[in-house]
Amino acid sequence: MFGTAEIEHLAKACTAIANDVTDDSGFIPVRSLLARFDARLMVRPLLVEGMLASEESGSDKNKWIVLIDSDTYQVSDSALAGESSRAPLDSRLRNTVAHELIHSFAFRPSEFGIRLRSMPEGSDSKEVVHVIERETERLSPLLLWSEKGLEKFLKNKQKSCSLDELMDAMRAMGISRPVLVNRLGLLGRTNRLRESPGLRNISVGLAEWNKWGTAVFKGWPLFLNFDRNIAPGFCFAVLQQEGVLAQDVLKDHMFAMCGGPKQSADLTVDEGTEQSPSSSRMEIHISCEDIHKEPGTEFMYVVQGTEIRTPKYERSK
User: Fold this and answer.
1) pTM for the model
2) Of 82, 110, 143, which residue constitutes the final position of a domain?
3) Quick one: 313 exposed, middle or buried, by C-beta within 10 A (0-12, 13-18, 19+)?
4) What is the DSSP letter of 72?
5) Digit-coded pLDDT (tens) for 59-115
6) Total domains present in the chain
7) Residue 193: beta bridge partners?
8) How big is the chain by its Cα radius of gyration, in Å?
9) Are strands 280-288 and 264-272 parallel, antiparallel or unpaired?
10) Domain enclosing residue 90, as ranges
11) Whether the Cβ atoms of residue 300 and residue 257 lie closer than 8 Å to each other
């Protein structure tokens, strides 16, 4: 099994590759990713969404092929060639391609400046692929939204990103909601981008509608980045317990996630650390997507904090 060091090497390689192929708008075209990995795309009937294959014959052919299922995806040569931030390919397709390209690291361990040392010599190739699948699935966002693209998005922002800004970025980068949240979460604690005003005092997560027209928080993925690690207490509850009901922790019947008509709300909530989540109070602005309340439908929400904090003892005065 790969250790932490090997996963970090993979992450660094993906980060470097993404920066290399990012265009001037901050977007990563699939065709550029394929070229960087010496691969080509082939659409054909499969029993799975995608898989990786190799071809050894013909000096003019690429070594790797990313096969995608023709019943799941439809992509033309012209769409692939003309893909841009204004016309990205389907986000699920883009993630499938990135996912399969990461698999290729298993067969080229010394390329891209990395070497995966944990696999013993003579390891079965199927076992190698299985380990890559298990250990690096979360790394595909690194190939879909580069640090260069993130820096461009965050440039000149003076306050934490709004839901609308993040939704615009999601569409422009051709990524899904989970990929966006996971990508933010892959910014390490020492990454300078975490200190950008656009990503400070903010939480970005996913929820879904239930049959009663209220929302259930998803515990993962969740991006949480508040100064001094002091965050809204309910965010820690969401991290620790799957299926937290919005109405139980937000207590605003007018807010959409609690069953009301409003897509945003200004609330005063408990705040603290993971060990002491209700040591004081803070003011937040929370907003969610205006999306049909079909049971099981997933949507994004954003929590923006303020610098106003009130110790709990003052509330009793």
Assistant:
1) 0.89
2) 143
3) exposed
4) T
5) 555 689 999 999 999 999 999 999 999 999 999 999 999 999 988 887 776 666 666
6) 2
7) none
8) 22
9) antiparallel
10) 4-143
11) no
